[in-house]
UniProtKB/TrEMBL annotation:
Keywords: Phosphoprotein. The lineage of its organism: Bacteria, Bacillati, Actinomycetota, Actinomycetes, Cryptosporangiales. SMART domains: REC. It comes from Cryptosporangium phraense. This is Response regulator. The keyword Ribonucleoprotein does not apply.
Length: 120
């Protein structure tokens, strides 16, 4: 399976990658994007099984990227991995079409709980 990880922090992309492996999702093809604009470009030019995105990124935020994908008809499963998880953000994410929002600090168990139904 192919997973797109979008975060403007290279270290955070590495932490997400490590957490995916700790959750048992080793062996998946992990592709990185440095911001929301790259996320949209990559998600529209290639087929992914899942997008994991930060909320706050330069050029285009995660929620703007999600809205752009959905407006263009891209229905790739999408979840946020971000530093904040207020009820308002969760509502906004769900209204935009996100399947989940995992707030930092996160654990491998939190990933597994959200991703098992998507990645099997």
């Amino acid at each position: 399976m192919k997973i797109l990880i979008a975060d403007d922090s290279r270290v955070m992309r590495q932490i997400v990658t490590r957490t995916l492996r700790q959750a048992g999702y080793d062996g998946h093809d992990l592709i990185e994007a440095e911001d929301g604009a790259q996320l949209v470009e990559k998600a529209n030019s290639d087929k992914f099984d899942l997008v994991l995105s930060d909320w706050n990124m330069p050029n285009m935020t995660g929620i703007e990227a999600l809205r752009a994908l959905r407006a263009g008809g891209n229905q790739t499963p999408f979840g946020f991995v971000t530093s904040e998880g207020t009820p308002e953000m969760r509502d906004t994410a769900a209204a935009g079409g996100a399947l989940f929002l995992i707030a930092k600090p996160f654990t491998a168990e939190m990933f597994k709980e959200q991703l098992d139904s998507i990645l099997g």
